[in-house]
Specification:
Length: 324
């Protein structure tokens, strides 16, 4: 059987899908409107009122601190593997992670070849087990660690506020949090203490918290401390306001999660139907469906189905994933 027309049709469908994803999806998803709205909000408006020199100096210090933090964040946007392992709470080296990934790929390839899955299927399974699975586990561990951090951060900020109001210095209040807070908040605040102990200013040490825990709440905390260290002000009031913001963001996240559970359940059912139907057909009539991984045409169709299913799952995930 000549599979050249099928291959050409598959490549043409892939090209059309890619073009639609690049040019049509941003229009349908509202990304361009969101970018325009963010640009309009960020645009400064002229003011006719005179600005006092002290206010101008304080504003310039605040703007300078924000620009420095944003520049550092953009510069380190591409996160190396060692930092990703640290963010996931693992003490592995990148070499150990790569070795484990290679072992998983080899095991998956051997299992696929043992069960006569074909060379294409074995390569695809090895790629998924050696490249996709370890990185998915890193992402899962990172999100779980961030959730635990965000759950304990508002209480830690309240402890710091009460310590400052009681007369303790900021550094001593951070030590109290590092001694009594649960993980991973305890280890992150211990890292702040250790970084400050070797001579780094406390504001910069707190700002580096965002590098190890890349969530907006950690960035807020670092910005508040860095600005207060440079320009002064009522730190207890600023941290009290930050604690209120953190709790409001937590409530908003829980509300969004509750409102989006129906869409997530629907997406999970739709995404799991094809594999479940394939498994049931294999259990009932294995010789009927085994052509998908034993015949070259079936293997090509199976690869195309996996690609389109992956695109569909990615689109559904983007539709039900809300950023705020």
């Amino acid at each position: 059987m000549n599979i050249q027309p099928l291959a050409l049709s598959f490549l043409a469908a892939t090209a059309i899908g890619g073009l639609a994803w690049v040019f049509v999806y941003p229009l349908l998803s509202g990304e361009k409107k969101a970018e325009a709205r963010r640009a309009s909000v960020a645009r400064p408006e002229p003011s006719g009122r005179p600005i006092d020199k002290n206010q101008r100096s304080r504003r310039e210090q605040v703007e300078g601190s924000l620009k420095d933090l944003e520049a550092r964040r953009l510069k380190e946007k591409k996160i190396p593997l060692s930092s990703r392992l640290t963010q996931a709470g693992l003490s592995w080296t990148p070499q150990k992670f790569m070795i484990i990934s290679g072992v998983l790929a080899a095991v998956a390839f051997a299992i696929a070849m043992l069960f006569k899955g074909g060379l294409i299927g074995a390569v695809g399974l090895a790629f998924a087990a050696g490249f996709g699975l370890p990185r998915w586990m890193l992402s899962y561990l990172k999100k779980r660690r961030e959730a635990k951090f965000l759950k304990a951060l508002p209480d830690a900020v309240d402890v710091i506020v009460r310590g400052i109001k009681a007369g303790l210095p900021l550094f001593e209040s951070i030590k109290v949090v590092a001694a009594d807070a649960p993980e991973p908040l305890k280890s992150e605040f211990l890292a702040i203490i250790e970084t400050q102990a070797i001579g780094m200013p406390l504001g910069e040490a707190c700002a580096r918290l965002f590098e190890r825990m890349p969530v907006p709440e950690a960035n807020f905390f670092g910005i508040v401390i860095a600005i207060q260290q440079k320009s002064g002000g009522n730190l207890s009031e600023a941290l009290g306001n930050l604690s209120k913001v953190l709790r409001d963001r937590k409530k908003m996240a829980e509300k969004i999660q509750a409102m989006s559970m129906e869409a997530k359940a629907s997406a999970g059912i739709i995404g799991s139907l094809p594999p479940i139907v394939m498994l049931l057909v294999y259990l009932s009539t294995p010789q009927y469906i085994s052509l998908l991984w034993t015949h070259p045409t079936g293997q090509l169709m199976l690869v195309g189905c996996v690609i389109w299913m992956s695109i569909g799952i990615f689109v559904m995930k983007r539709m039900i994933n809300f950023d705020f």
